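Q: I have 248 residues here and want to know how they pack in 3D. Can you give me a structure?
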Amino acid sequence: MAQEISTERPGGGVAVLWLNAPGRRNALTVAMAEELYAACDELDADGDVGAIVVRGEGGFFCAGGDRATLEAAGRDPADPELFAGMGAVYRSFARVGELEAPTVAAVRGGAVGAGLNLMLATDLRIVGRDAKIISGFIPIGLHPGGGHGALLGRTGAREAAAAMALFGERVDGERAAALGLAWEAVDDGDVEETAIELAKRAGADPELARRTASSLRTVLGPPALPWAAALELERASQMWSMRRKALS
């Protein structure tokens, strides 16, 4: 079976993590999710990687969970193998959120359901102006999964989370950026280039980028830390960076 997750190193301390199943718009199967998890382990082990761009092949970011996989799980949700398989899908985008290097999602076409979870698991998002950003669970009769509410709520406003997850509202890339679900909406052909250029800023100093990503995620939460705790958490890493700079 052909690999459906791949990585490449375009230089500048940047790695690109590819979802490569364009025939189903990069919808996640159990096998693909396991590949994604393994690819994250590989990237964490490479200390030269200071930033990671996550993107989908074929002009679409990720259409969520593979329908056949979801239907199989629905026939017998308590079956240990099927239960574990859905857990593997959840763990895959959670693992992207745990990558040591800062992450940027380059979203073209759309991000739906679990694909939206994957998009929101990254630290920063660049989206195509016309990309379709869709919660997608309620309209097909499913309760959201994979920490969907927490991901929506930590990134955008509560109103946006409720509108999308409860009432099936769809937004395009422009609206997603306006709601705080993405950093910037750009022309479709500029998505990957913009994401990589941003990633190069962090990629230039991988060790510092990884330390800063860890601190920022811990401080911002959820749950967020109070300011006094953030001061103490950041102290050691800042002092490390000051010493490193003085000795360089």
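Q: Anything worth noting?
A: Residues 227-247 form the longest helix (21 residues). The beta strands are 5-11, 14-19, 51-56, 103-107, 110-112, 124-128, 132-134, 170-172, 184-186.
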